[in-house]
């Protein structure tokens, strides 16, 4: 495979599959075209193909004419999470060290909290540990033992392995996970167990099963998290393979010959053949974060809140000091803590499809986290939905144009939305339909505003130091409600497909981790005693692995940027801090001192200078090599500023209810695409775009900046 060039703009298709809509961004011959189609949960490849056909039609071509011109397709998907929630994976067998068969069943002390909503955590009597993905009868312990230094204490009993392997297969195992004690230090036993499985069940036989090694998936300390990461990969692999293979086959049949990349939750993308299932989790929101950071730098914003309101969820992420180095080191996927580095985002069940209901006992109105999804969708979609949603409330309030929704491709039923809200919300609460719709909107907006405040305050920042980027199909519609204490919100013309835009500018990024415990600075004497030879050997091994994978993917190794991050902690403390190492190699004591000083500076900034404990010594815990191959990134185009008068973009008016004044008024409507830089509009006003609607209530002002972006601020 020849090296891909990354210097020129690539002809690309970027697709983000959400719970309700499938978003697409086409970059072709310097022009960007967007498309949006309903997600098809029964077969995601159908919605994928529908989106490509829609964008091809927009560009005046057909799918077979368009695809051969494309260099790369990048894909982010919710398949992993959906399949996990549905618990439709295969029976997985686990091979572990004898005596440790109950490790994943015991879990960690606070496992019952993992992945739970606050309302669930408060109801302590109802809490239970999650149902295991691998039951006890599908777990076997084999006779072997490796100690923490990698020394073989008990040789592998191969006959024991063969006997217990047959037991797992007889019980219906369709995938095998091998997670042995301390295998990340010495993986020989795990590799030999895999060889035995291949000897017993060969690839050409019907009984062939996928085999996942924990030492290959997560070569890091932490047996529970390492095992669960491997279990999730094995549990999701078959379904994801089938789903993505169907998509891959369809576009290949239509003439596509380029690369097919998956968006990774580490902040980059990689070949589908080099991507594990767990790496695809939360790829869409991470792409939105990367896109936000890119445009924030161009706009001169250092601190940005990325707020993505889709049909099913609201995702929040932060850009701080122009950087996105906010990681979850042990994130929770569904209810399972795993051991991999993932960019930090917060997701709550709030979106256009969130279902509103009245508790029959407390008479309290709740909105979300249940969602109507894409099928049947909100009641107003005319697809069989019966429960009122946030979108139904927006339609009833007059904010949505029922005759021109979704680019005119969907006609909405105001009557059905009104009836659903009246029957299920207004009458049980004894209020009018408009008041009920306004309350639905207020509750969902407050939920999203609370999520933003929690994320910002918990990291030690103030909301008024940030700018809000509002995107997703429902982001511009609700931004006035959830921006709360954030003084300024920015709306991009590409807001409805912003996560796909983010993936279109993502670099090729791979991350390689290796646990290696060593004393870096000696306690008491504070002498730098890091084993420089072992340090350099560990980094070089990771770099060698990275070079091999880059060459296999056809990426130019010469353009790769290698950066090293380290996990380090002080003696007497348990808090590990990840920081960027200024040195990739340690060739002198000065190099070691520079690395330590970077650690001290970052831990002081993150916690306090009071946590610095030099007499306790510093201990290195983990190596993280980040390899980046940059791609071409577009720049925002500056346009000439015009006058404040927006009348050229006026498209009419319609009746809309504004809770701020408590009345329905005839409200001006404008077309977003026709607004020009310099235009200023004071609310109340409704601004319609192809795939979204911007709602500007009384007291807010909407203006167009020199880049053609919308800016919403409180009126002075």
TrEMBL record:
Residues 529-709 form the Acetophenone carboxylase-like C-terminal domain. It comes from the Bacteria. Transmembrane segments: none annotated. Residues 13-200 form the Hydantoinase/oxoprolinase N-terminal domain. It holds the Pfam family Hydantoinase_A. Residues 226-508 form the Hydantoinase A/oxoprolinase domain. InterPro entries: ACX-like_C, Hydant_A_N, Hydantoinase_A, Oxoprolinase-like. Signal peptide: none annotated. This is Hydantoinase/oxoprolinase family protein. It comes from Spectribacter acetivorans.
């Amino acid at each position: 495979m020849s090296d891909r060039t990354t210097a020129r703009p690539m002809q690309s298709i970027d697709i983000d599959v959400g719970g309700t809509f499938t978003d697409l961004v086409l970059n072709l011959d310097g022009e960007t075209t967007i498309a949006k189609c309903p997600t098809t949960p029964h077969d995601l490849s159908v919605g994928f193909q529908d989106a490509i056909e829609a964008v091809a039609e927009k560009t005046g071509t057909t799918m077979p004419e368009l695809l051969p011109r494309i260099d790369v397709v990048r894909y982010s998907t919710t398949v992993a999470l959906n399949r996990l929630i549905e618990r439709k994976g295969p029976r997985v067998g686990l091979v572990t060290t004898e005596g440790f068969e109950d490790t994943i069943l015991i879990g960690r002390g606070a496992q019952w909290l993992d992945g739970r909503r606050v309302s669930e955590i408060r109801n302590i009597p109802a809490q239970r540990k999650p149902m295991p993905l691998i039951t006890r009868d599908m777990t076997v312990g084999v006779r072997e033992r490796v100690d923490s230094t990698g020394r073989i204490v008990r040789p592998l009993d191969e006959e024991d392995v063969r006997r217990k392997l047959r037991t797992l297969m007889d019980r219906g195992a369709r995938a095998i996970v091998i997670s042995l004690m301390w295998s990340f230090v010495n993986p020989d036993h795990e590799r030999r167990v895999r060889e035995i499985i291949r000897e017993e069940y060969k690839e050409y036989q019907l009984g062939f099963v996928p085999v996942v090694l924990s030492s290959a998936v997560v070569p890091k300390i932490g047996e529970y998290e390492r095992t669960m990461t491997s279990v999730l990969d094995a549990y999701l692999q078959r379904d994801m393979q089938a789903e993505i293979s169907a998509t891959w086959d369809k576009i290949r049949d239509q003439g596509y010959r380029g690369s097919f990349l998956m968006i990774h939750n580490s902040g980059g993308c990689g070949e589908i053949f080099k991507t594990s299932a767990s790496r695809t989790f939360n790829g869409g929101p991470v792409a939105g974060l990367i896109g936000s950071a890119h445009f924030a730098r161009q706009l001169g914003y250092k601190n940005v809140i990325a707020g993505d309101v889709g049909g099913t969820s609201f995702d929040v992420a932060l850009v701080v000091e122009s950087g996105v180095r906010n990681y979850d080191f042990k994130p929770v996927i569904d209810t399972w803590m795993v051991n991999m580095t993932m960019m930090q985002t917060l997701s709550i069940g709030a979106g256009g499809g969130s279902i509103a209901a009245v508790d029959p006992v407390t008479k309290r109105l709740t909105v979300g986290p249940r969602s109507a999804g894409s099928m049947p969708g909100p009641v107003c979609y005319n697809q069989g939905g019966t429960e009122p949603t946030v979108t139904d409330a927006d339609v009833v309030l007059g904010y949505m144009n029922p005759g021109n929704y979704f680019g005119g491709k969907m006609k909405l039923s105001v009557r059905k939305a009104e009836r659903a809200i009246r029957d299920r919300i207004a009458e049980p609460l004894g209020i009018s339909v408009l008041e009920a719709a306004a309350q639905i909107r207020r509750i969902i907006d407050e939920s999203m505003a609370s999520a933003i405040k929690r994320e910002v305050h918990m990291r030690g920042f103030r909301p008024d130091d940030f700018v809000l980027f509002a995107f997703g199909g429902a982001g511009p519609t609700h931004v006035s409600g959830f921006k709360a204490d954030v003084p300024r919100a920015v709306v991009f013309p590409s807001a409805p497909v912003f996560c796909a835009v983010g993936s279109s500018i993502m670099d090729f990024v791979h991350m390689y981790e290796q646990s290696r415990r060593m004393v870096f600075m000696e306690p008491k004497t504070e002498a730098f005693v890091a084993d420089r030879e072992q340090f350099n050997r560990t980094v070089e091994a990771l770099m060698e692995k990275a070079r091999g994978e880059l060459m296999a993917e056809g990426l130019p190794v010469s353009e790769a940027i290698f950066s090293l991050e380290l996990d380090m902690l002080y003696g007497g403390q348990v808090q590990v801090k990840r920081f960027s190492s200024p040195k990739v190699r340690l060739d002198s004591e000065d190099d070691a001192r520079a690395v330590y000083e970077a650690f001290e500076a970052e831990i002081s900034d993150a916690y306090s200078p009071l946590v610095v404990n030099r007499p306790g010594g510093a201990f290195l815990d983990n190596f993280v090599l980040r390899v980046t191959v940059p791609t071409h990134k577009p720049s925002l185009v500056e346009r000439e500023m015009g006058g404040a008068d927006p009348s050229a973009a006026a498209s009419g008016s319609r009746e809309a209810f504004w809770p701020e004044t408590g009345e329905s008024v005839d409200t001006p409507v404008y077309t977003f695409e026709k607004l020009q830089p310099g235009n200023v509009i004071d609310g109340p006003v409704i601004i319609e775009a192809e795939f979204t609607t911007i709602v500007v209530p009384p007291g807010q002002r909407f203006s167009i900046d020199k880049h053609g972006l919308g800016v919403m601020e409180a009126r002075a």
